[in-house]
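Entry for the shared binder. Reason: the reviewer on the internal report wants the predicted structure included alongside the sequence.
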Amino acid sequence: MIHLEKIDSTNIWEIVDLKVFKSQKSFVAANWVSIVQAYGVRDSATAAFPFAIYNDKRPVGFLMIGFNEAAMYENWDDVETPKSLVNNYSLWRLMIDKRYQKRGYGREAIKLALDFIRTWPCGKAEYCSLSYEPENEVARKLYRSLGFMENGEMDGDEIVAVLKL
């Protein structure tokens, strides 16, 4: 059974050790980078919720939810902030370890993430957004099948898609 658990001292290293295939490395940040980012936005206008994805007791992936990611962009002069990141939730990161891909874990984890978001931990919002590399067809198909629609925005070189909450 797929479930999410908070990242803490009991599971951080097994989550850091999860890896994607070499051909997928350009599509997602390493889990340790995401965990550092989550720590880095503490006490700011951006919130991060990093979770381990488990199948029963086995860690199979990593997911991070964000809120108001746009606030991070205020310190960067050369990056245009996607409007959908302002005071909205985001599926900031999603990765399934290469040993556990193609089993539906990513789809189920996204559904659990949306359930968490709809508890409104940072208050109500209109959208959940995400972004992906244009050549990542697997991600595009998965996100579209869950109702995420491209909105014409870009997050750097990535396509932005949103889901109305």
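Summary line for the report: The chain has a mean pLDDT of 92.
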